Amino acid sequence: MTKFEEVLAATKLNELVAKRDDDEKMKKAILWGLAIIGAVAAIAGIAYAVYRFFGKDYLEDFEDDDFEDEFDDDFFSDEDEVQ
Asked: Which residues of 36-54 are buried (b: 16+ CB within 10 A; e: fewer)?
């Protein structure tokens, strides 16, 4: 091999190594981005779960006993007697 061919081969090798390093840096950046998005989503999910657990249950204000007197049970039996 001539000196020129050795330099050319070394240059190609350096380009491949540099390209691989760039690819690895890009993969690391994407991995970190996805990790941050996942962490934010997990924290938001936990915060929502805590909010739902400790939040006031508005249905407790309406108990079944409060509405029993509003409906007349004889309403349906009168229709059956007419037929």
From this structure: eeeeeeeeeeeeeeeeeee
pTM over 0.85: no
Instruction: Note the helical H segments in 1-83.
Output: 3-54, 74-82
CA 47 – CA 41 distance, rounded (Å): 10
Q: What is the dihedral of CA 44, 49, 53, 55, to 10 degrees?
A: 40
> Per residue in 20-71, pLDDT tens?
777 888 899 999 999 999 999 999 999 999 999 988 777 666 665 555 555 5
